[in-house]
């Protein structure tokens, strides 16, 4: 569902740019060009997710629109062409998300980042660790303006306990001087369990000693802030750390995902399967490893073209998710796929695979007016204690047997069926 954005801006070209940015992010936009319009709009509708506010309007030249919008508890970004220290301080004295000088096109790129993260940040947990209640509350207030999911702890040990329970935490902001466990020790302990790809740490300290920033970084922190810090620097550093984690996540996803079907790729399958199989064996969980591919797939490509062939591969992936989604799925390459699946017993696992095979065999794929039917053959190994490579070889041999015996069937490794 689209979030509502109130754009307060008397310049039509600038309002149009902000509207385009917001709509690209799936915001529903309402534009007001004066303080009077803002007041009228907010009388009947205060369900805005966020707002952008021009500092100077025809009927409100000195930022009067800012407290008007904030009084309705609408998180707001201020845009201003007037940038002196007095104006800056006046803006920052109010609980705004941020302010942006209208200096060049970078202003709108920065605004896009802010509006994007306002939508995303609710899924990002931030843990604030500080024994000072006032300092902790100040940081929490700043984070809540940016829509983060915030947790608090009074010392390092309490922070570790919270981290263990709250899996959405992406960032820890920790003070240095605390009882029970200080920030340096906490950073060190966190890095024993969480890599920099998984979690960012920002150290903070009011101490004047310049060595604390280096100590934090050397003990696993990613960044450092000296108290008292200004909200602008705080937001820049927090956003940068969250963006870095997001970028790493996107890179890892691209490296481990098949671009066409969006299933895990061969690399991801091997990594995850080698972790899962020992656990199945240790806990006596019945499981199977199946290799499957599309029968006569070359004929599909030759008859209908590669675009239709790609569509068939996507459809197969959908059927795999539907029937075999409890397992680890992957596209191994070309028309060959793999599944590693736990279950109740061999019969249940076999029936799942066979339901999947039969559902495909009676279905029809429609693409640009063309009707295509296809089948799959499957080779499967049950409850093997061999290495992953050996199991895949055995499943592949069983797959070859299924092909030799007429296709559109399941062949079990070590069976004469």
Compact description:
The protein is of the alpha/beta class. The chain has 15 helices and 17 strands. Helices cover 47% and strands 22% of the residues.
Mind explaining what this structure looks like?
This protein has 15 helices and 17 strands. By secondary structure, the protein is of the alpha/beta class. The chain has 3 domains: 3-118, Rossmann fold (3-Layer(aba) Sandwich), CATH 3.40.50; 124-255, Rossmann fold (3-Layer(aba) Sandwich); 266-412, 2-Layer Sandwich (Alpha-Beta Plaits), CATH 3.30.70.270. A 5-stranded parallel beta sheet has the order 2-1-3-4-5, sandwiched between helices. Strand 3 (50-54), helix 3 and strand 4 form a beta-alpha-beta unit. It is flat and about 85 Å long. The two termini are 52 Å apart.
Task: Please render the helix and strand layout as text.
Layout: E1 3-8, H1 12-24, E2 27-32, H2 35-44, E3 50-54, H3 65-70, E4 76-80, H4 85-92, E5 98-101, H5 106-120, E6 125-129, H6 133-145, E7 149-153, H7 156-165, E8 169-175, H8 183-193, E9 200-205, H9 211-218, E10 223-226, H10 231-256, H11 266-282, E11 287-294, H12 297-304, H13 306-324, E12 328-333, E13 336-342, H14 346-361, E14 365-367, E15 370-372, E16 376-382, H15 388-404, E17 410-412
Parallel strand pairs: 1-2, 1-3, 3-4, 4-5, 6-7, 6-8, 8-9, 9-10, 16-17
Antiparallel strand pairs: 11-13, 11-16, 12-13, 14-15
